[in-house]
Amino acid sequence: MTKYDKFLDQDFVFYFAPADVGGGIPSQWGRTEELYVTSQFFDVSSPQLGTWSIDVDLKFETGVQWVDVIPAAFPDEVWYMATVPYEFSAQFESLEAWVTSPGAQAQFTVRNTGTAADPAWKLVEWRDLGVMDSRPRAFEIHKTWGGFKAGFIRTFSSP
After folding, report:
1. What are the distances in angstroms from CA 41 to CA 11, 125, 128?
2. Helix axes 145-155 and 31-41, enclosed angle (nearest 10)
3. Cα 100 to chain center, whole Å?
4. For 105, which of 40, 64, 124, 129 could close a Cys bridge (C-beta 3.0–4.6 Å)?
């Protein structure tokens, strides 16, 4: 969590896929909520979860192209944005597995808060773009990464 905390920009925003929004799930949340919910994935004292493992694989090796972005709020900076396919899986003590639906993608925006000689990359935005529907196999629930995180909103109260 310490590394993830350092990697997130102070103004980090996670955007949920449109299909995941509603029923108490917001369209986005900020750095505080992101760190809180993510920390709950690793809380071994939480009997509600029974999580065995979580694996997130961002497929940067698929030939991702970064696009330059000059944000209005930071006109002297160049940020970089890319759309990246991803896969994730979560295994639970109940033998249930949540896995990525085929075609899952997210858009990432990063900025260098260091120097050219000594870069310090920060994640500014993570936009879950959603997936195509598919039929899950037995004991699998297909989700987006945001949909998986949204399940934790119902399990834990906010900080």
Report:
1. 22, 20, 18
2. 80
3. 12
4. 129
Q: Hey, where are the domains in the chain?
A: 2-155
The full DSSP string for 97-151 is EEEEPTT-EEEEEEEE-S-SSS--EEEEEEEEEE----PPPTTEEEE-HHHHHHH
Q: Which of 54, 58, 63 is nearest to 105 (CA)?
A: 58
Read off the pTM.
Answer: 0.79
- Residue by residue, pLDDT tens for the chain (159 residues) are 899 999 999 999 999 988 888 888 899 999 999 998 888 777 666 655 566 778 889 998 888 999 999 999 999 999 999 999 998 888 777 677 777 777 889 999 999 999 999 999 999 999 999 875 455 444 445 566 676 667 655 444 444
Contact 49, 155 (CB under 8 A): yes
Residue 107 token pair: 């858009």
Q: Rounded to an integer, what distance in angstroms lies between the CA atom of residue 88 and that of residue 108?
A: 16
Cα–Cα distances in angstroms (integers) from residue 9 to residues 25, 31, 62, 106, 114, in the given order: 22, 8, 25, 17, 12
